[in-house]
Amino acid sequence: MPKHIVRLLALIAIIATIALFAKSFFRADSFYQYGHYRGNAVAEIASKIPKLQGSASCQSCHKEVYEQWTTGIHRKATKDNQIQGVVYKYGPGCEVCHTGPAGNHPAKTPMPLSIEDKITTITHLNPQLHVANIPGRKLLLSPDDMRGVCLNCHEKMVGRPDEQKQIDLDTHSGKELCVKCHNPHSPKINFAAMQTVNNGDAEAGKKLATTICASCHGAEGKSITPAFPNLAGQHADFMVDSINAFKAGARKSDMMSGIAATLSDADARNVAAYFSRANCTVTGGDKAKAELGKAKAANCAACHGAKGLRGNGAPGISGGPMWPNLAGQNAEYLANALKMFQDGTRNHAVMTTLAKALTAEDIDQLAAYFASVSCK
Amino acid sequence: MGIFANATPYVGYVYPNETDVAWSQLIVIYPYITGLVAGAFVVSSLHHVFNIQRFATISRFALLTALCFMIFAPTPLLFHLGQPTRAFNAVITPHWTSAMAAFGYVAGFYLCLLILEIWFAFRADIVAMSKVRTGIMGKIYKALTLGSDDVSAASLALDHKIARILAMIGIPSACGLHGYVGFVFGSLKTREWWSSDLMPVIFLLSAVGSGVGLVIVLYVLVSKYRKEPISDDTMRGLLYVMFTGIAVVMVIEGLELLEMVYKAREGVETVMALIAGPIWVGMYIQWGLSFFALFVTSALLLFDVHGKRLVTWLFISGLSMMLGVLAMRWNVVIGGQELSKTMKGLLTFYPEMFGRESMLTVLIIFTCPFVVLWLATQLLPPWNTAAEHE
Amino acid sequence: MKPLISEETVTTLKTKAEPALTRRNFLGLLGKGVAMAGAVIGAGRAVSSESVGVHEVVGAKRAFQQNDEQYAESVRNPPKIPNYNWNDRQWAMGVDTDRCIGCLRCMEACKMENSVQMDANHYRTWVERYVYLEGSNNAIVDSQTDPKNIENVGGSETKFRFDNRYKNVKVDKAFFVPKLCNQCEHPSCVQVCPTGATFKAKDGPVLIDTTYCIGCQYCVQACPYGARSFNEARGTAEKCNWCYHRITKGLNPACVEVCPTGTRIFGDRSDPQSPVSLFIRNNHVQVLKPEMGNAPNVFYKGTDKEVV
Lengths: 376, 390, 308
Description:
By secondary structure, chain A is mostly helical. Helix content of chain A is 44%, strand content 1%. Chain A has two domains: 39-133, no CATH class; 173-376, Cytochrome Bc1 Complex, Chain D, domain 2 (Orthogonal Bundle). Chain A is built from 16 helices and two strands. Chain A has a two-stranded antiparallel ribbon with strand order 1-2. Chain A is elongated. Chain B has a single domain, classed as Up-down Bundle (Formate dehydrogenase/DMSO reductase fold), CATH 1.20.1630.10. Chain B contains 14 helices and two strands; from the N terminus they run βααααααααααααβαα. Chain B has a two-stranded antiparallel ribbon with strand order 1-2. The N and C termini of chain B lie far apart (64 Å). The relative contact order of chain B is 0.17. Chain C has helices spanning 7-16, 23-29, 35-43, 68-76, 105-113, 147-152, 188-192, 218-222, 244-247, 254-258, 275-282, and strands spanning 91-96, 125-133, 140-143, 171-180, 198-200, 206-208, 229-231, 236-238, 264-268, 298-301. Chain C is globular, with a radius of gyration of 21 Å. Chain C has eleven helices and ten strands. In chain C, strand 7 (229-231) and strand 8 form a beta hairpin. In chain C, the strands form four sheets. In chain C, strands 9-1-10 form a three-stranded mixed β-sheet, with helices on one face. In chain C, 25% of the residues lie in helices and 16% in strands. By secondary structure, chain C is α+β, with helices and mostly antiparallel strands. Chains in contact: A-B, A-C, B-C. The interface between A and C is large, with 68 and 88 residues.
């Protein structure tokens, strides 16, 4: 065989040997142990530290809200806590709403980097800290977030199953924040509990009522002229809210702004307690108009009536103590109030939008309707 | 639009993860470059294996061309990898059920084969040079001789025989290398546009077409540069190969398209929308230039054209074949990804212009083989002794 | 009445169906064999007897592409994970699409838990919305990636929320479908991985060894479900692994943990009383794209013809 062929074969043999040696030298230790992969990789992947800690981990520090949550409706996903016949899964826990995983909250140090996070490439030499690993992440929600957080699950949307509680924003609350009425940790509204919030002294209130209020609203809460509202039987919470609004200037009235300023918080509660217990009367309205107004009152019913949101009131009797009863109220006063919402002299997130959609005729008829329904 | 800063716009519904197109323009030129290798190698083998004399003039040049392009075939892949430093993992622990694992071995084997064949084809020249040249070049030639200056008639005959055997192994290897690239795409059941049994054949045949085109273009340009006459015989030979390549690949590509449309599986409307939508320019370039090259070569054959006119028109059709095949690679690689796996949506891929994985990278990578080829022809001049070598 | 095939018969069948030189065994021998041959055999897997019928059993079983020796090793000497033995588990997931409300809490939790890129192009899990407008026979599909959904939350890609675009149109039917990696029995991604950086663990999940992945993205192309993406920062592939670091510690995957409606049901198939076993047994379940032959391990209840 010629010399060059021999040399060539020798060269090939040397290169091949080096290649084979390199192939086994560079092979990872546990490769082929369980299959065509690094056997050690399995335990490495499993060693990553979980970031979601589960609701139970919040309990030790946040006892109060944890208690509210466990006793509330958000604890349950389904009626009987069962899915497929297994007691398996409960409703939204803390980390569902509180911006993802707790991580190592409340510690001030970042989560340790996992194997994946430590990986660098030629173009990315520094391992990046993922947003979830950054300490002091905001777990508490701002009021603005809260609305979005609730709507994530509860906005009325096609595709959501009927069992899911969904709300239609336009009719439910307008621009009002959910937390105005609902406690997010236990969102079902307990009306009985809310009624007791106003613990004014009716006897003390009577004194004030007969001296200060009676000249317009009547000593018994029946107003002397239809331009002023009847107060008898009105929700105490609403009246306190109103007095506070006049005080703060959020609601304006030539008479009331001045009078409200003279009332202390206790006075307001006492007066409200007194009038809320007084017997109401129906002022009545134009029958023909009332008949037409009845057909248009569907939109009001969510807050101000039966089969609305709360389902526990008669027409014109509001579902929550923070909303006024309308039943039997003076038609003129009601019409004026709606017109004030329309022209912006009075403001309310829901009412302003709703009122603007009404014509003068609508207002007339609705006022007549509510003035004529029973207030009992 | 903000969110499309690094993603791809789409219509219909695509899986969210698809909005980042995984295989970019670098994967377009990777099969293109390997295709050029296969084509150039086939031309050189026509002389080395079948002893067709009209290719003798360019057989060694074609061989060098094949090598220079082969050296750069893996570079687009390296630039594309997320972790290029780990590239050898695929060679150290190749997972044989993956078509891609074979690449290191198939390409490596083929590269060795090319080097060996070139060494045998040029050995007499290398020995002669080692005696003439001095200095660094002299040492390089000396090293290339492996310390043997045996150029006796007997050993040259043996060289010739070995070169022929290598070329004979090389033909199936080149076909295998390129058929394998087709397999990488054709074996993916996920993508309707790729999942075709004809894919390896189409890739292989279009590779031959584009490779012959490259040899024609380079031969004409280099001859003009060297102010040497262009062999009419060689050009006629290249014309035959070229015509056969174009005609067959067009028929098979047409058949593939026809089958897809005729079978009309779920989502065929989306396939049609793909052809009429994101890749319509590519389709026009691919088919337009293919038809053009087919007409020109047919005319050249039909009217028995020779001389200067043959050179001009064959050069043009070779160039259009190269561009047509490049467009075809784009249509396959990018088009396949522009057709969503959902078969309910289409994406539009806009290539990056500057950066690691950009058109600029493509341009640089594609320029390299030509530069290296120029260097290689300086080291191993393929022309002067071609006639006497036989 | 006596069942046609008793438990015993099945066991016998099982043993008989495993000849001395099984396909996987053969594949192991081929370890240093010819490249193409391996690929061809891998591709021919779908028709082998193991993928149909008798081998579809629960309990300790071989992983994809595991030969006899490696199987024995995995039983004898399982990976060292504290208080966990992968031979005891066969993980599976159920998705009850009738319950999904499209709140996308799963997406957020997943991205946080697994440090996934916080943009609209990389997800380990996502939710699709299918809407049939009145009289239409085809669904309109979108996911959070849809520009309108991003716009709806002020252009932020990290506020996961569907917009309410169908509020004022008539809709025949609509539903949400959560998607994630199906952890297939015959994963295409594992088949095409050139290095062995992704693999099927013996207890079910398909894992990615991010320290070994070269980032070629062939697996991204091969996945029929679009479950894989490419993490540019890490230069490696990215996909759901059912939170392997959680399930091996006795926790639920992050998405299951935060799902407020119980849409996602996770458990051990080798335990006949586990939630997922009950879910699969008590419902008519379906897998996605069965024609691909991947044999997914995520079981859907209430999907639809249009679901892709």
